[in-house]
Amino acid sequence: MEYKNICHTFEPVWDEHSRILILGTFPSVKSRENQFYYGHPQNRFWKVIAGITGRPLPETIEEKKALLLASRIAVWDVIASCTITGSSDSSIRDVTVNDIRALLEKSNICYIYGNGAKACELYDRYVREQTGVDIVKLPSTSPANAVFRLDRLLQEWRKFLQI
Fold first, then answer.
1. Would the pTM count as exceeding 0.70?
2. For residue 77, with 0-12 CB atoms within 10 Å meaning exposed, 13-18 middle and 19 or more buried, which class applies?
3. What does the alpha-carbon distance between residue 100 and residue 8 come to, in Å, rounded to a whole number?
């Protein structure tokens, strides 16, 4: 696969009631095709959020947004643009970050969580100094994180996300 420079093309999900921000790294190929977060059918993000909130699994983008907002969760990615091969986080280079500080300033977000180690690493490297807010690492919901089965993901995410 070849490297491509790609820009993030969809907005963060949040409103004035959001208290938690969950950050990913950068949208996967499937998410970019779908124009929404965690679009790969094997990604367990939506199953985890539905599971820890006790709500039905959302199917449509509107249902996904409604689930997040009803749970006071905001979702965005650390990266605004980068050079990447496919969906591989390990191939990311030439990073430009999203203005997470501006989102924090105009919202009531109190807690930031990273969906996986790479999101946390990028946040700490490029954003932490601007925001002054620490990020808490959650195990990645990516299908590449085969060590964590769904039940274990739910257990770990529940420890931190008090919704």
1. yes
2. buried
3. 14
Phi and psi at 125, nearest 5°, equal -75, -40
| Rounded CA separation 144/67 (Å) | 25
From the list 54, 22, 38, the residue with the least C-alpha distance to 46 is: 38
DSSP, res 26:
S
- Contact (Cβ atoms closer than 8 angstroms) between residue 90 and residue 84: no
| Helix extents (H) in the chain | 29-34, 45-53, 61-70, 100-105, 117-126, 128-131, 150-160
| 110-124 per-position pLDDT tens digit | 999 999 999 999 999
Rg (CA), the chain: 15
| Selected residue with higher pLDDT from 95 and 91 | 95
Distance of CA 59 to the CA centre of its chain: 18
Which two three-digit tokens encode residue 122?
């990028």
